[in-house]
Design a protein that fits this description.
Elements lengths: L2 E5 L5 E5 L3 H29 L4 H25 L5 H6 L1 E5 L7 H9 L1 H7 L3 H9 L6 H6 L1 E5 L32 H16 L3 H18 L7 H15 L2
Antiparallel strand pairs: 1-2, 3-4
Helix pairs in contact: 1-2, 2-4, 8-9, 8-10, 9-10
């Protein structure tokens, strides 16, 4: 499992899990199927139903070819780095320097698809994605982009939290914690885990920002430090919702 750390404009370092070769290959195949089905349907409509011929048929054929050629570029530009295949696999193109990729970045990735994927039958792309530290093909390297998972591979479940304390041995401190939803608590646990693993200023700032946000949402005050506060809120939620 490869990860990438990206520093935001607020100097907060965000850690993302990179999409692996399997995810990207499946996304590519899904896109290929979608494009093939779309072109097949449009071909039947144009040539079998409306029976286009002559100049109209030539223009229509050019239109169908354009769908194949520009599908990935248009989808990623219009859909913030995601094609249909990437949406299905929950992966996304982002800048390795932080922020969203620009139009020129997507164009660079699209141009080098010819070398990475089509001319080499995917061989170059597969080798580079599997071997490079940021799982980048040539197009990604040129555009300074990477493909990340929108949902981490290690999917935390609430049952993982139930072992924290038994109901008999723990008394909730913040009854307001029951207002949270499971996704909120999993975010707290992930932030605490990352802070424990990466003791740097960026993760400390992320911990503080999250603690402040939780206090605002629950409308509570606390004298505990940010780490103990979030740990307590998480424990309280588990006990109050069991």
């Amino acid at each position: 499992m490869k990860n990438i750390e990206i520093k935001t404009t607020q100097n907060v370092v965000l850690e993302y899990e990179l999409a692996d070769l399997r995810d990207r290959v499946i996304a590519f195949l899904i896109d290929a199927v979608c494009v093939t089905v779309a072109i097949s349907i449009l071909s039947v409509i144009g040539f079998a139903i409306f029976r286009f011929t002559g100049t109209i048929a030539t223009v229509y054929s050019f239109f169908l070819s354009s769908i194949f050629m520009f599908y990935t570029l248009v989808m990623e530009v219009k859909n913030n780095g995601q094609s249909l295949g990437k949406m299905a696999m929950r992966i996304q193109v982002i800048k390795t320097a932080g922020g969203h990729a620009t139009f020129s970045d997507y164009v660079a990735r699209w141009i080098f698809r010819m070398i990475d994927i089509y001319f080499s039958f995917g061989g170059i792309a597969c080798i580079l994605i599997a071997s490079s530290s940021k799982a980048q093909r040539i197009g990604d390297i040129v555009a300074n982009t990477a493909v990340i998972k929108r949902v981490p591979k290690i999917d935390l479940k609430l049952r993982d939290l139930l072992a924290i304390h038994s109901k008999d041995s723990y008394k909730p401190v913040y009854l307001e914690a029951k207002k949270l939803v499971e996704e909120d608590v999993l975010l707290i646990k992930t932030t605490l885990d990352r802070y424990s693993k990466y003791r740097n200023d960026a993760h400390h700032e992320a911990l503080s920002l999250l603690a402040q946000k939780v206090k605002e949402v629950l409308a509570i005050q606390s004298q505990l430090d940010d780490r103990r506060f979030l740990q307590t809120v998480m424990n309280d939620y588990v006990i109050l919702t069991r």
